[in-house]
Amino acid sequence: MEFFSKGIIYNFMKYARIFVTTTLILAFLSLVLVFTKGFNYGVDFVGGTVVQLKYEQKAPIDKIREDLAKDKLFAGALITEFGSPEEVVIRFSTVSDSVAQDIGDHIHTLLKDTGTFDIRKVDIVGPKIGSELRSKGIISAVLAMIGILIYVAVRFEWKFAIASVITLLHDITITLGAIILFDIEFSLDVLAAVLTLIGYSLNDTIIIFDRIREELEETKNTNFSEIIDICVSKTLSRTIITSLLVFFVVLTLYVFGGEIIHGFSFTMLLGVIIGTYSSIFISAPFLTLIGFNVEKYKANIALKEKNRIEKEKNALTVRKRYRLI
Transmembrane residues, as ranges (predicted)? Predict the structure, then answer.
């Protein structure tokens, strides 16, 4: 299935400066949000307690707030609707000092006048564990980047590796900025979505880089901008089809999956859009920005091929000598 004719070459590089400048501005603004406003960390990372309630009727949120305010344990508690008018989530930073204390029973007692309800879930995370999860999440992302850098450098060359990592940093930075802008709670689900997007974005970038490598080996053309336009145009249908399939799957999760995976699906939606955009318009132009030279690349390929042939000749010579002996 082809959305775009393989015979048509689109002039992406003509507008490369506009795309790169725009995206760098967005990345800069995202970093400003990260260091000024910061993330709305969930209980997973800061510690605290989350209690989910299911009422038989519409949950009286105002009455719930009023009754919980009578107990210091729930000071500053956040009470929000969760997916439907009958369900609410109570979040508070205080963790019970006693493991024996049953938060569920305590809430049942406090909210007995608000109606009939069941406690669907109680999650308690200590602040130390939350801090460890946050640190391990950062370490996971850094290790993923290092692994990608090594993999692409071995498969292609170091400039391809740097361009791919810059592209990934661009995607993650803008995605994180959007998470802050839309006030999405940063939980383990959102972290999982961010790490998933690293692999998804890299896959699209590698497809284009692989096509560029093949074109460099086959063509005598040394105009790198033209080579990029050819390769991106030839992979455009594949990129769009893959992205649309992932987008509609994640959109279905976002619309029908409920509040519990809202953060994950929203982050994935943002990431798919940003990753597709960067794969088409950003990743290859970054190669030109870091000084990729077609003639030097071809010279390195020729040198490697020459060394390979010489090694084969030397190995053949050695085998012949052993036969004579």
Answer: 15-35, 137-154, 161-184, 190-209, 240-257, 269-294
Domains annotated for the chain, with CATH where assigned, are 13-40+129-292 (1.20.1640.10), 48-125 (3.30.70.3190)
Cα three-residue angle 179-182-186, rounded to 5 degrees = 40
Cβ burial, residue 146 (10 Å; 0-12/13-18/19+): exposed
**The two three-digit tokens of residue 176, written as one number:** 């994180």
Give the DSSP letter string of 273-312. Answer: HHHHHHHHHTHHHHHHHTT--HHHHHHHHHHHHHHHHHHH
pTM (whole model) above 0.85: no
Residue ranges of the alpha helices (H) in the chain? 16-36, 43-46, 61-68, 103-110, 127-155, 158-181, 188-218, 224-256, 262-281, 283-289, 294-324
pLDDT score, position 230:
87
What digits encode the pLDDT tens for the residues 221-268? Answer: 778 888 888 888 888 888 888 889 989 999 998 888 776 788 889 999
